[in-house]
Amino acid sequence: MFLYANQSHLQKCVMAAFCIVAAAMGANCGSSAAAGEAPAGGIVSPSIATSLPADGDPSGVRKRLGDRGISYSLVYTGEVLGNVSGGVRRGGIYEGKLEGLLNIDFDKLTGWKGLNLFANGFQIHRSRGLRDDHFDSLITVSNIEAVSSTRLSEIWFEQKMLGDKISLRIGQLAADAEFFVSDYARMFVSNDWPTILGANLPSGGPAYPLSAPGARLKLTPDEHWTLLVGIFNGDPGNQATANRHGTNFRVNDPPLVMGELQFRFNQDKDASGLAGILRLGGWYHFGEFEDQRLDDAGLSLAASVSSGNARRLRQTSGIYGIVDQQIYRPRGGGPDSGVSVFGRVGGTQSDRNLIDLFFDTGIVAAGMFPGRPDDKFGASLIFAKISDSARALDKDAIAFGVQQPVRNYEMLLEVSYQFQLVPGWVVQPLFQYVFNPGGNVPDPSGSGHAVRSGALLGLRSTMTY
Hints:
Elements: H1 9-27, H2 61-67, E1 70-83, E2 91-105, H3 106-110, E3 115-126, H4 130-135, E4 149-161, E5 166-173, H5 195-198, E6 212-219, E7 225-233, E8 255-265, E9 276-295, E10 310-328, E11 338-348, E12 355-366, E13 376-386, H6 388-399, E14 409-422, E15 425-435, E16 454-464
Antiparallel strand pairs: 1-2, 1-16, 2-3, 3-4, 4-5, 5-6, 6-7, 7-8, 8-9, 9-10, 10-11, 11-12, 12-13, 13-14, 14-15, 15-16
């Protein structure tokens, strides 16, 4: 790995990437069949608009815009969640997210082949956060939970070249849109940016609900292989204070670099074999991180003579692997049909990270019930291990007379069913059980005991227009 002499190098890298894409654009190369181009009639699929009179477009404005390469969509996700046992407190919440998405296909609009603009933003509203206020947990309970605000998420240009074999994105990007993602895990309410990144990187890293300026290069030499490389500003800013509306566009923080190699097989609709995707990736953050056990003098942070200032360590990095594998494919079914399993695993250094091992796995059955081809049923399990250094600090504290549990791990089980009412409208009842919330952290009541494991029930509704 190379080292940055100072933080301004991220700006230099981004500017260099802009120059590369500008040169590519000047050559006007690439394919007109961009993956993000405006859909026919301007309507995404599936959409509840197709169940409305005149496709929900009585004036025809949406179709006229779509024919010119400008498409938009709205997605509203609302859910009721409540913990029925364990945690810090009982009770239920309602939270919702209204997302607006815009895509401009410049091939249709101006004849500029391979160029697209994408932007999206959220209006997030909630009563209280179940993860933070009810369970004090590390693993995501709901992947729409965020501080209530109206917020810009991503806005970027993408230029595709050489028959879509090369694409470059420049702008404000969310790393969790493409990196460390399992396709089959997407149905779960708890599926999110992995805890090993969200709990360790500054402000959780460039992932929902915040993005960061950066660039992403994608190489797809054939239908099987894909290589992704991305560089992002490494700290998107605290969502509640420093970057509440997602418009700070921070570029002076130490960068985060991510890379991922993908291999796909039997992804065609008419393929007869079982579909699958294998991914191998890693990350490297150039910032400084606090030692989880020792102070700047090499003493335990739990010692009475400690300075209380954690030792500073340069950089953090990690590797991960992902498997998406179909295990039953019905006759005539696509890669998303039948029964599939998935697994993600990642590891990082123990001395500078709260979580040093992450693993999740699950099984999904899609279209298995007669007359319900778009329904899905699944179960997932997420595991996040507290690092050895953080555990050692807890043991030090106990040795110095503090009554507290030793942190070990947190785990979350989810069972969900997605029921499609009409195309574009899905209702999802779910059950979750949180084991060792916070990794076995002390109850805030001061009893010295850990927060109790507990169960929650929920119902989510997602509507796409």
